[in-house]
Amino acid sequence: MILDIEPISLGISLLLIAAFIAPLYVYTKRVKEKNRFLIQNQLAQAKNLGFELLEYEMWRGRYFLGIDQSRQYLLFNPEMGTSELEVIALSKINSTGVSQEVRTLISGKEKVIIIDKIGIELKGSDKSTYVEVFDRTYYSDLNGEKVIAQKWLGIIKNAISSQLQRN
Q1: What is the pLDDT of residues 15-64, one digit of tens each?
Q2: All structural domains of the chain with their residue ranges
Q3: Predicted TM-score (pTM) above 0.70
Q4: Transmembrane residues, as ranges (predicted)?
Q5: How many angstroms separate the Cα of 139 from the Cα of each of 58, 67, 77?
């Protein structure tokens, strides 16, 4: 069975489909270019400080976290594009853990737990450092931040334990 489609109708349909897809394509391309630029900027900052980040992650176009395994430093930036990298010496860290700031709202018979902040707590003998992974003031929903926090907690713990084994 051969479909009888008029060439003019087909042309108009293809033009409308292209007109719908083009802005989405352009937007996606711009976001990828921006993210690539932000990552390259963070890696350049790290290199200028003398660090080589073999493992790093960026999320939400805002947060950046990387680790220099050989020198045992964690580099973090909670606001890419507006602030410098924070350098954390893992040799001075005694304990680590994921921390969450939550609140409970009661609406009728339902209890709703709202997560306001997620971060990685790094406690040392002289000071504690909080590495922010999610803050509700900037975003209204979670987008894998719990998984990111657990992943980086594991990476940090492995780095600290490998350092202890070397000593």
Answers
A1: 999 999 999 999 999 999 999 999 999 999 999 999 999 999 999 888 99
A2: 7-166
A3: yes
A4: 6-27
A5: 15, 25, 17
